[in-house]
Design goal:
This protein is mainly alpha-helical. The chain has two domains: 41 residues, Arc Repressor Mutant, subunit A, CATH 1.10.10; 131 residues, Tetracycline Repressor, domain 2 (Orthogonal Bundle). The chain is built from nine helices and no strands. Helix 4 packs antiparallel against helix 5, helix 5 runs antiparallel to helix 9 and helix 8 crosses helix 9.
Amino acid sequence: MSASRTKPQGRPSATDHAAIERAAFALFEAQGFDETTMEQIADAVGVGRRTLFRYFPSKNDIPWGQFDESLRHFREQFDAVPDDVPLAETVHRCVIAFNDFDEASMPQHRVRMRLILTTPALQAHSALRYEAWRAVISEYVGRRLSMPADAPLPRLVGHVSLALAVASYERWLAHPDTRLTEVFAESMVELRAYLTSG
């Protein structure tokens, strides 16, 4: 979900996901998500609409970046953890790793998450993305516990993990001086402490 963070200069002869995101995010910040059109984004990048749609099927997909690729890496992170690592620790590690971005990408990632969490037009689309993200966790938990991914416990772990992620991002957006991975780690520790306190 990360991308290069420098603003494009002029009209590039070629493009990629990162260039489109940079141009789109600049327009979203300047004039609002609803007011920005795919035509404007294509013009800012210097490509035709057909080229733009090959990278992103809709404007709503742009804030999510290469989400399907991110989910593939998310699954790989779970698969790489040895089975003797406690289940809760595995989920903890992988959720933090999924949200661990290099420092240079953080300003644009902050724009991304602010759009995703606060733009009403994105909420229905986001629900589909959230479901796919939860499914990665539920499927893994189900395998570890030898039960279906849609059984109550795997589904619960997926939902709780998403709620913790959203709460962590809201906290991070409200406090720009905090480190994202530290916010996630603290949230998980606080949740465990609460659940074990009785």
